[in-house]
Amino acid sequence: MPSKLIYDADCGFCTVSAHWIEERWLSSEVSLVASRDLDDNQLAAFGLTRLSVESAVQWIDSDSKAHAGARAIGLALLATSGWTRLAGRVINAPPAHWIAPFFYRLLAANRHRLPGGTAECKINT
Fold first, then answer.
1. Which of 41, 38, 25 is nearest to 85 (CA)?
2. Domain that holds residue 83
3. Phi/psi at 124 (5° precision)
């Protein structure tokens, strides 16, 4: 099964960020999916809920395993090349992978204040 990055398409910042990563993917075996395009049964097949996809970006790997937040971003970046692939390696390796979740939560909590963000982007974290 091809890997997927599931993002919140109702958030402008998330949409811009997800498409930025998508443009850098090397393989057509990776896809970008808006969470609103998946029903609850499709989410459940990956062990996800509506709440989980509304509160964090999700990476579904080729084994259908879900990874959330900073780990999802790191894995999505590993599907690219150059400096973005290196960034993915750094995010997923110690010591960065210990602190990356903190920064992800900080960004997620403030995504409505980031470029492209709107009031609809605000989430309760």
1. 25
2. 3-121
3. -90, 115
Q: Which residue has the tokens 């400096």?
A: 83
What predicted TM-score, i.e. pTM, was given to this entire model?
0.90
Residue-wise pLDDT for 37-71, tens only, equals 999 999 999 999 999 998 899 999 999 999 999 99
Cα(108)–Cα(92) distance, integer angstroms: 18
Quote the pLDDT of residue 124.
Answer: 59
**Which residues 6+ apart lie within 8 Å of 11 measured at CB?**
111, 112, 117, 118, 120, 121
Residues 6+ apart with CB under 8 A from 115: 13, 16
Distance CA 51, CA 24 (A): 28
As beta bridge partners, residue 58 has: 6, 68
- Beta-strand ranges (E) seen in 1-125 are 3-7, 30-34, 58-60, 66-68
d(CA 98, CA 92): 9
